[in-house]
Amino acid sequence: RKEVEQDPGPFNVPEGATVAFNCTYSNSASQSFFWYRQDCRKEPKLLMSVYSSGNEDGRFTAQLNRASQYISLLIRDSKLSDSATYLCVVTNAGNNRKLIWGLGTSLAVNP
Amino acid sequence: NAGVTQTPKFRVLKTGQSMTLLCAQDMNHEYMYWYRQDPGMGLRLIHYSVGEGTTAKGEVPDGYNVSRLKKQNFLLGLESAAPSQTSVYFCASSPTTYGGYEQYFGPGTRLTVT
After folding, report:
1. CB–CB of B94 and A97 under 8 A?
2. Which residue of A6, A81, A89, B25 is most buried, as measured by CB atoms within 10 A?
3. Which sign does the torsion angle of CA A90, A94, A96, A100 carry?
4. Residue A2 pLDDT class (50, 70, 90 cuts)
5. Which residues of A touch B46 (CB under 8 A)?
6. Nearest CA in chain A to B33
7. Which residue in A102, A91, A107 sits closest to A24, CA to CA?
């Protein structure tokens, strides 16, 4: 089993739609969780950290379910500019300074 | 702040040639990392550093060496390039604060080995 698993997609949605991505991780001892965004041929950029209580940043909401080892990202009112690959990331349980990366979920927002 | 910068942006090498990739950060971060990204493989950690003068192996260290002589710089060397090292190389840095495990990336170096 991969340490971090994501549905690769692609997700094709119209502008204004709500879309949700899910991610599962294998090590229950992982402590920190993130969503990154990567545009084609660009570097990954931190989108948001994910907290146990859930957190929201504008149109983006992240949730963490430690019992099920599951992380989600909800994007409301999708924009064309949201088209990208979304990477689910968790810290290595034995070393928080090392990150374990999912392969990403591809999102295309269409006009 | 420039954040994390990488030079060069692109490079083509012949098999057996050597080169050094330079990463610089101006955020006073203690931790720095080198990754490679290949289609279908995701980001893989090559080497990392927890501070000036220290380096450690990551997931795929073979064929690479690193040095961290100054806190702000992290160099990645390829002594004898092979076609399997064709990839996009990203450098990242991470703050020192407790709980600040997120990493910030440079724009990448696209390396082709022929």
Report:
1. yes
2. A89
3. negative
4. confident
5. none
6. A98
7. A102
